[in-house]
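<purpose> Linking amino acid order to shape
<body> The protein record starts here
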Amino acid sequence: MSDQARITNQKDGSTFVQAAEDSILRAALRAGIGLSYECNSGGCGGCKFDLVEGEIENLWPEAPGLTERDKKRGRHLACQCRARGDITIAAPSAGEYVPRLPPRRRAAQLALVRDITHDIREFRFVAADSAEFLPGQFAMLDLPEVTGSRAYSLANTPNAQREWHFQIRRVPHGQGTHTLFDRLAVGDEIGLDGPYGVAYLRTDSPRDLVCVAGGSGLAPMVSIARGAVEAGMLGDRTLYFFYGARTPRDVCGEDMLRSLEGFGERIRFIPVVSLPGDESAWSGATGYVHDQLERVLPGTLPDYEFYFAGPPPMTQALQELLMVGHKVPFGQIHFDRFF
């Protein structure tokens, strides 16, 4: 494989160059071209394309983002393929995917680790240059002795202190979280590539904001809340922050929101527990977090700007509630699918 390959997208006529270490998708985004995507890690299938001419290398043939039908039709994932020389593809693209901040590779050192819950930790990395991203975006981390990049959402906001904060939940038998939780030490260096993601804060929206988080979906929603405060959006708007947890000990996020200006007046925290156990140990809302939206929000759902992140069943239920049940315009719904 050559150091560079020229890629032509037959659908929109764009041409861009792929460096040897990049996937087709990352090369396009670095060039400012908006190929369709969401997770950038092989799970969602949002970056499917057809190979028209040339040869490619498939980095993960078993990626769940491709169905058996896709494979029979000869389809591929742009986030999991590299060009072997010049190629022509047919891939969907749209203006909404054009990166406002083209992603870049950089080295970063682990500077601090702190526990948030029994299975969620915050990892703070410092890079050599300023941390430029949009609230709600994610980055790809290249970890020592872990095959392939891992996508993790940012919890902080862009800053000149060069800090990238990630709140990550331990995944049983997960290679990435095993390295982060059990092997990586303060001072160790990793590769950090970003920013990525289209579910970032829309500062021009006049509507009240609703953030819904589940599990480690906490990170991008905290970033959204922090970004809204920094942008001065809550002067005449309210932010409703729902957090869905399995048990009372899994509930988190309130301390981070409490430190923000407007908490209690302009920022409301609504935790929801699906398995309360001993009723005396939990006095808050119970059930599924998406069911609380209709009960808590004072207006009709199309009145709000929605952001959410969490387990696939939660995000699927929210999509159905908002788009099917209440006809919320798609432009007011922001999420990146991860699996």
Notes: The longest strand covers residues 104-115. The mean pLDDT is 95.
